[in-house]
């Protein structure tokens, strides 16, 4: 009965969560702002009320790895960007790699920054366009404070301003706000405890002020390095503060090693969250445009010409009716397409729902237009498809769904929504404390229960219950396991050079360094790994040893018997978790200095426990 109720509850919860994620982007719930009687300019055949820009992210200029990364980035600045001719370029962090040769340690290298700066200078791109480059977590590794000589961003970047800011792109047809959200850590610990960004109270105040300022602009885009799911923030949270933005553009997660090639979703307030794949390995970049205040974008791969961006009719999936005057599509006279290529464009063919509409003709610059009658598509969802050919014989196709009806809802896929919209650090925190708590409660229950909870047939559960019973009743083991659990949660894990010259202490709930407390985030994930790969298997192994003891087997005597087959994997397993602890020590030494390996009670404690077990 209890199981049934539990199962039902769990199922209910799961459906609720999945439902929540999949209704994100349900247009119906979004209130249209003030566009009902919109009398804005009409989308026609002229190159007007339109500008476009480029985003590139996670460049990771490295002095040790992959020189092609820089060579191609230089070619991108010298050849691709002049073809696109963007109004501005956003470089959203991780400009340099800042990892040591072994790829475990981290430090700021002046050489990497010099290379980055020389690419910008040599290519002449800074004279052609506005270049806004901001810091990522890699650009803040090992920086005790912003005035430090190690903060090369201040010396070698184009923008040279840390902190969140508001930049207004001023055009004859309107003002467009770009708000940067700088969640990098100050002081900046070395990796890996520098994966999550933080927005504290003061920064949240600044962000609210910037959001207010942007209300005078036609449209607002927010950008930053970290996706909102990797920012630890005070209330009301970063998603709420950017709710008047049409989109938030970021980087940081790359493509998750190929698992998530497209990471786009939408906040429940309507803001699109658009992570862009990295330049580092995937050579991604993005062209985005505001055409008559309608936002559109396309994610591209370097040197894949011709590039196509359909700005009218814009994609139904990527629309934010709360902020965009989407009605303008219905009153438009022309389909509008931006195309770019290194050689002349020879044809731009347009079709809707599979039937050819004709060839778009050059308006001016990169804009091609084709007369259409939107009334033919008033209801339902339609697909527009554009094929572009250039003089080099290269051809590309781009298509998307559009709709002219109010309240049409298209949802984003579940996986990207899970990755971008979950507050992972809160989830990890809750999971970790629940697992510690349940382990402690279990131990105490078994200690004060008179008999093993389950008797009867010698099933797996009965055997586990029996050995837990023995373990909890033996003082040495009971207190060791209890202490291990409590220590994982509250004790310092290690003391080390979290920043060069600054000794810090790491706990499950955060890192203390240079008199600052950096709130825990990744630490909870490490804590969960420690529970899963050490605390739990160690306890299981102890149970198993005790069980054999009670059954009258000596520690090794069973090797001579038929039990060999069971024992061998168990010993292998124990050696593996032992190796894991040793690896942890080596890892600490590589990342936070030799001191960390020696002053790491957590790993030492682990090895000690292991010792007790093996002796036993
Ligand atoms: C853009 O901002 C400037 C300065 O704040 C202001 O004078 C101008 O009227 C604005 N333009 C539009 C079209 O809103
Ligand atoms: C930008 O806003 C101004 C003021 O509201 C408006 O007159 C103008 O038409 C808008 N620009 C576009 C492209 O819609």
Describe the structure in your own words.
With 616 residues, the chain is α+β, with helices and mostly antiparallel strands. 36% of the residues lie in helices and 24% in strands. A hairpin with a 2-residue loop joins strand 18 and strand 19. The protein starts with a helix and ends with a helix. It comes from Xenopus laevis. Keywords: Membrane, Transmembrane, Transmembrane helix. Pfam families: Ig_TMM62, Metallophos, TMEM62_C. This is MGC154928 protein.
Q: How are the SSEs placed, and which strands pair?
A:
Layout: H1 2-23, E1 50-56, H2 68-84, E2 88-92, H3 110-123, H4 125-128, E3 130-134, H5 153-156, E4 165-171, E5 174-181, E6 197-199, H6 201-213, E7 219-224, E8 231-233, H7 238-241, E9 247-250, E10 264-266, E11 272-275, E12 284-291, E13 294-301, E14 307-312, H8 327-330, E15 334-340, E16 345-352, E17 355-359, E18 361-364, E19 367-371, E20 381-390, E21 395-403, H9 414-421, H10 424-448, H11 460-473, H12 475-490, E22 494-499, E23 502-507, E24 510-513, E25 516-519, H13 522-550, H14 564-592, H15 594-598, H16 601-615
Parallel strand pairs: 1-2, 2-3, 5-7, 6-8, 7-9, 9-11
Antiparallel strand pairs: 1-12, 4-5, 10-11, 12-13, 14-15, 15-19, 16-17, 16-20, 18-19, 20-21, 22-23, 23-24, 24-25
Helix pairs in contact: 2-3, 10-11, 10-12, 10-13, 11-13, 12-13, 12-16, 13-14, 13-16, 14-16
Residues 170, 174-175 line the site of one 2-acetamido-2-deoxy-beta-D-glucopyranose.
